[in-house]
Write a sequence for this structure.
């Protein structure tokens, strides 16, 4: 079209929608140019222009037997044709009916010019199918699903989203005709959709992606693919976990999620719960940990995947091979950690050929990735709970992992990793005399030294670290057959544990102090800790004066341990305490002993 005619089109389109006769005259005498088509495509963004431009007669000029040849020869012209078609057919069935005979030609342009036309071609195909059954049926009849699989081989994030929307749109027709989408296509789509937005992109972008993929996951044929490719479930779980726990993990770098976003995330989580439960795991996102759906789940497959894929993520022991691989490793650690809740599952995970404890320890020591280290620590914690697994964890150098977690890096201590390490230490020691012996006597086991070093700066430590240190030391004293040397700062942690708001931790604290005071050195350490904390008897008097309630279901046991502690202090330190301290302790023992302990003369 001559320049003046292009200007004439621009003037018409700049006016309010109308001028059908003038446009029809122009369409009969023009040769398609990218300049005019760009103007037409932009005009079609306005819904009122779409019916008019559909009737104007431009489509027969650009959609004919030479369309593919034209598209192959002129990239910019083809791009504007596709943009025009995409906008023209949106929500206008009459225009769709005009374009439908050329659906295959339009879709085939996706691979022209090294894929640079893929996005407008997929967008036009989606608008031909969305809420338009004739378009959906034509897509299925033409077997364009195979073309779609080729289209996304090198697709961008936006193209993946559109491909997902196309598949979701045409899936009912597929089901009605007993056709199946290939496993390869589903695998590619799900993997790309779950990881492409990542945790660095906007929350809205991720939610849009999940809105596209979740309807697809409800289909039985797709779930079968998930059952065979467990890494798909892991990737989706990881992506969702990161989003759903974003406040705690501090991955919202710019803004906190608002209430609407939280509601959308919760909806996504609820949807994923049902899907993943049908595959392997029932994950309760709002009240973790996860539980296994049933004992028919083949945990061996998950373990094999993790064992095969995790360790190659590390090139030189410190450098991750790629962010995507590390994200999947995090997901695997989280997933396995949350399903390791039954002895039979733990037995499968730690036994040959999987021995998942080894790559978990390696990840903590060598990966340098904080999220992966945290997930691996949680996995090791759950693996170490059954008494039968503790030897295997010790042999896998789990104590070395603990030392790594509780030792400050440079000048900073990672509080969350330290807490994870102390929790792991506690379960390693609890009910395992062999592990306690190794902790206390093995010169190569430096965990006790690392803990003592950590506790030297007690005043500057997070209260949660102090509490977890106290719990670990109580587990040691409950289990160890050897004499446990008292650490003054460690005893202070156990005393602090008696002030913990959780009644279970209070009880552990009093038990630990009663056990520690069984020797003169231990009683002296407890006495000094109470002196540093305030005075010797006030805290014990407070516990003995309490009345049982629902909030303190084991108060009676706590009071019994307090009385045992008092008896030990009086037995070993009668001459070392002040007269007032001795008198106050004797008074408490005589008032509350109730015959359980021999009363002492004041």
């Amino acid at each position: 079209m001559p320049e003046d005619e292009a200007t004439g089109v621009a003037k018409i389109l700049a006016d309010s929608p109308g001028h059908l006769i003038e446009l029809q005259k122009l369409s009969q005498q023009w040769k398609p140019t990218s300049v005019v088509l760009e103007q037409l495509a932009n005009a079609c963004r306005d819904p009122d222009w779409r019916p008019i431009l559909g009737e104007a007669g431009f489509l027969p000029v650009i959609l004919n037997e030479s369309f593919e040849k034209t598209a192959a020869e002129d990239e910019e012209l083809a791009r504007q044709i596709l943009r025009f078609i995409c906008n023209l057919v949106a929500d206008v069935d009459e225009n769709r009916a005009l374009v439908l005979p050329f659906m295959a030609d339009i879709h085939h342009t996706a691979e022209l010019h090294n894929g640079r036309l893929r996005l407008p071609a997929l967008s036009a195909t989606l608008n031909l199918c969305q809420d338009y059954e004739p378009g959906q049926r034509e897509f299925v009849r033409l077997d364009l699903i195979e073309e779609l699989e080729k289209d996304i081989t090198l697709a961008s994030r936006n193209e993946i989203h559109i491909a997902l929307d196309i598949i979701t749109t045409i899936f009912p027709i597929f089901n009605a005709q007993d056709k199946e989408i290939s496993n390869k296509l589903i695998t590619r789509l799900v993997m790309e959709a779950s990881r492409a937005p990542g945790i660095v992109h906007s929350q809205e972008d991720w939610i849009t992606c999940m809105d596209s993929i979740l309807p697809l996951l409800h289909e039985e044929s797709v779930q079968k693919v998930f059952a065979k490719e467990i890494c798909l479930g892991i990737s989706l779980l990881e992506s969702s976990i990161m989003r759903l726990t974003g406040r705690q993990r501090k991955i919202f770098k710019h803004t906190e999620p608002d209430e609407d976003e939280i509601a959308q995330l919760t909806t996504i989580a609820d949807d994923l719960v049902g899907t993943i439960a049908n595959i392997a795991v029932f994950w309760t996102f709002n009240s973790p940990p996860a539980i296994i759906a049933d004992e028919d789940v083949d945990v061996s497959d998950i373990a094999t995947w993790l064992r095969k894929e995790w360790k190659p993520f590390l090139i030189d022991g410190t450098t991750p091979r790629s962010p995507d691989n590390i994200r999947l490793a995090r997901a695997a650690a989280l997933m396995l950690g949350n399903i390791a809740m039954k002895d039979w599952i733990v037995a499968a995970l730690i036994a040959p050929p999987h021995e998942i404890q080894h790559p978990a320890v390696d990840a903590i020591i060598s990966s340098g990735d904080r999220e992966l280290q945290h997930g691996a620590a949680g996995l090791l914690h759950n693996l170490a709970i059954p008494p039968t697994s503790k030897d295997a964890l010790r042999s896998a150098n789990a104590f070395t992992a603990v030392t790594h977690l509780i030792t400050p890096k440079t000048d900073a201590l990672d509080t969350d990793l330290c807490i994870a390490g102390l929790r792991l230490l506690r379960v390693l020691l609890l009910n395992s005399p062999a592990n306690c012996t190794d902790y206390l006597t093995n010169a190569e086991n430096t965990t006790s030294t690392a803990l003592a070093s950590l506790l030297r700066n007690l005043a500057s430590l997070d209260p949660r670290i102090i509490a977890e240190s106290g719990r670990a030391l109580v587990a040691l004293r409950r289990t160890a057959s050897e004499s446990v040397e008292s650490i003054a700062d460690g005893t202070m942690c156990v005393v602090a544990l008696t002030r913990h708001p959780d009644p279970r931790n209070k009880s552990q604290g009093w038990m630990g102090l009663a056990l520690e005071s069984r020797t003169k050195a231990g009683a002296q350490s407890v006495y000094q800790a109470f002196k540093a904390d305030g005075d010797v008897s006030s805290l014990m008097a407070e516990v003995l004066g309490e009345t049982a309630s629902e909030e303190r279901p084991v108060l009676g046991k706590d009071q019994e341990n307090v009385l045992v502690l008092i008896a030990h202090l009086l037995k070993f330190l009668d001459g070392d305490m002040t007269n007032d301290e001795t008198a106050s302790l004797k008074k408490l023992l005589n008032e509350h002993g109730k015959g359980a302990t021999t009363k002492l003369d004041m």
Residues 485-602 form one domain. Residues 17 and 46 are 9 Å apart (CA to CA). Confidence is low (pLDDT under 50) at residues 196-201, 244-255, 276-324, 595-602.
